[in-house]
Amino acid sequence: MKSERELLLGSYHAALAAADPLQIVPAHLPPPPAGRTLVVGAGKAAASMALAVEQHWPADAPLSGTVITRYRHGLPTTRIKVIEAGHPVPDAAGEQAAAEILAEAGRLTAQDLLLVLVSGGGSSLLSLPAAGISMADLKQVTRQLLHSGAPIQSMNIVRKHLSAIQGGRLALASRAPVLALVVSDVTGDDPTHIASGPCVADPSSYADAIAILRRHGVEPPPAIATHLERGLRGEIAETPKPGDPALAHAENRVISTAQQSLQAAAAYFRAQGITAAILGDSVTGEAREVAKVYGALARQVRDHRTPWQAPLALISGGECTVTVRSEKGRGGRCTEFLLSLALDLDGAAGIHALACDTDGIDGSEDNAGALLAPDALRKAAARGANAAALLDANDAYGFFEATGELVVTGPTRTNVNDYRVILITP
Questions:
Q1: Residues 169 and 42 in one domain
Q2: Residue 178, CB-side half-sphere exposure with 13 Å CA sphere
Q3: pLDDT in the model for residue 328
Q4: Residue 119 has pLDDT above 80, yes or no
Q5: Which of 197, 221, 256 is the last residue of a domain?
Q6: Which of 69, 187, 194, 324 is most buried as measured by Cβ atoms within 10 A of its Cβ?
Q7: pLDDT digits (tens, 9 = 90+) for 221-261
Q8: pLDDT tens per residue, range 17-72
Q9: 374 and 248 within one domain
């Protein structure tokens, strides 16, 4: 019989395998066009998606292009150039590569194909500020949004209205047919929110972007405020909207989702004789508050054997948020969820948990997430770690560093959002 730790880690790796671009991409590749194929893209899965294209593209069919991925997420390719750039805050490397991508797309003809590889993280990696906005301005507003607790969909509405390439503008630049293969990292799997939708119509507006900044208390740099106000007045063109015939040549195909990974994890547990319940692939909200709800459900199962009986795995995905209260804190939403869960369970026997980001990086440090055992509070306290104080300081990494239960995978080169599981044993 496997230990709880082995079961939790095994389920995480099953979820990752279900989102492996090397396995998923080949079935969605189109036949080569009469002309040439330009491959472009951005995201944490960009390098593995590009490698999958290279491995399965006919050797005699013209193929070239550029994709942008996060630093340390690259892979060796021969026909498609891989550029590493800044994430979650954009940088000049991403800006330069995005400019090159937009220019190359504009040189295609109707006989060619623009193959776009889109995955989570692309919003910051494919950053090309609109005219009048500097990269410094974009960095500043991105940092403010990251610390504000704004959901990713709201962040991307703002970014689309500050960009020269996102919000459908990449597809607009191409006279060639466009096929975007999308690995989803957002709740709902709507391509408009993934990498800020470079090839898909955008239903949001400049007014929405301004309202989001105000709602979350973000004071943008003057150049950004001016740009958004000009857009509101109609002095700058809006992003293309649903039904716009200018995007009739573009297809966006979601090829991997969080739900598929959750189903793979559930199948893993069932193969071990453990009931698995998927609680949702689109869980959002403050990580520390979501943990309290799940803690109550876990106790209900353990103590009252309803609505399921142990052994049971409660599985969920999605993207919670963390409102940063301390600039010195370390960690991310997965470890913050687990630390809050630890405090809520208060050492309850028979309940173990794991929360990890499928991209291998949870927030600010080197870990994908962590494991939680019933003795975690005791172990941390023995090492001088105060769980409540660390949660208040947004330093969940420090807590799990003390317990020795950080999960470190390195870059997975995929991203279908967070994976959480609570394992309840009799």
A1: yes
A2: 28
A3: 78
A4: yes
A5: 256
A6: 69
A7: 999 999 999 999 999 999 999 999 999 999 999 999 999 99
A8: 999 999 999 999 999 999 999 999 999 999 999 999 999 999 999 999 999 999 99
A9: no
Q: Residues 88, 142: contact at Cβ < 8 Å? A: yes
Q: Name the token pair of 353.
A: 């948990």
Reported pTM: 0.91
Q: Do 67 and 108 belong to one domain? A: yes
**What is the reported pLDDT for 311?**
97
Rounded CA-CA distance 425/419 in Å is 20
**CATH code where residue 55 lies:** 3.40.50.10180
**What is the domain extent for residue 209?**
21-256
